[in-house]
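Hello Y.,

Per our agreement to keep a running log of every chain we model this quarter, I'm adding this entry. I've kept the format consistent with earlier entries: sequence first, then predicted structure.
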Amino acid sequence: MHLRYSYRIYPTAGQRASLVRTFGCARVVYSDALAARKEARKGGLPYPKSTDLQKQVITAAKKTPERAWLASVGVDPLIRSLRDLDTAYRNFFDSVSGKRAGRPVGLPRFKSRKDSRQSLRFTLNGFRIRGNGKLNLAKIGDVRVKWSRALPADPSSVTIVLDAAGRYCASFVVDVEPEHLPEVDAEVGIDLGLTTYAVLSDGSVIDNPRFLRKAERKLKAAQRELSRKAKGSKNRAKARRKVARAHAKVADTRMDWPHKQTTKLIRETQAVYLEDLNVRGLGRGRLAKSVHDAGWATFRRLLEEKAARYGRHVGIVHRAFPSSQLCSDCGHRDGPKPLHVREWACQVCGVLHDRDLNAARNILAAGQADRLNASGGPVRPGVAIPRQARPVERGTHLGDLRTTGDRAAGAGGIPVL
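Predicted structure for the entry above:
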């Protein structure tokens, strides 16, 4: 499998100037190739091939006075820019034809030097790692790298990224074999939420860190300062970088935290079961900011990627499964409840349930039943009700908002009473 390893790099002033020049050349080549294909489509001409475009916008363009400066940078990132254009077109056509799953992908657009993120890619012909640990880039030189960890294998390519905060990073692509961890008996169901980020079927609780909420005060102050600067001034550029650094800090902590949580879950459990939440729909409601701040989709994606690498299993329970309405002890469906109801007693067996813990147990049972392709049953872990997190916001399940009939089909063949 292919993995990415990113490291901070610290180019000198001269190297930064060379990188900026290479960024510009790669953008121009990409935009020229896109314009050539658009003109061919308007004129009813055949679709230009990649090899013809390379001769037109790189080889022949270097001999013209308008594009003679393309010869001052390495040719490898320019060719990679054309390959990126081919990938963009292929993604568009696959999305239109239905071969590509997910959200619709639009046609490629022209690149601008005002984009907050600039990048260029080098293959094996354009870079090498020196014995002293420096990264050598064609026509740029040896760049200092902060190696936070060793690469597991020789990289096949490297992408140099300049983000909005002015930081340079080198992202290496390596090919590694899966590392299956020793099997364990533990399996867990997870109920994701906002008040509490996650409640596990074994009674464990993960509090919601709320990174954006905690940084909102500083973000607002930095954005207010930016709005007061004159457009086009150097002070406005400084204020813009300050805002970008504040947002980058939130983004970095938001990514680091789920990495640690998912790694712990994958190492300690053999199978993890989640509910298929409609994050896109919830992100359009009144809790949109908190939903996006929680990053449920990122949490799920990291779990699935690490499970594939370490030989674990991640099961997804259908979003229509009424996890908050079923009694995890006897299986009775008690019906929908208002979002402010966090505890309820089953009308049949009388067991007092914590709403989130009960949902996590039901998700575990549904996931196990679906995995075994057999009807499930009630789950009795026999753990205590978890501690209550601070009540800030309610509402995490679409099942809480549904007002269907008294019966519903259970996930994985679980009978619903």
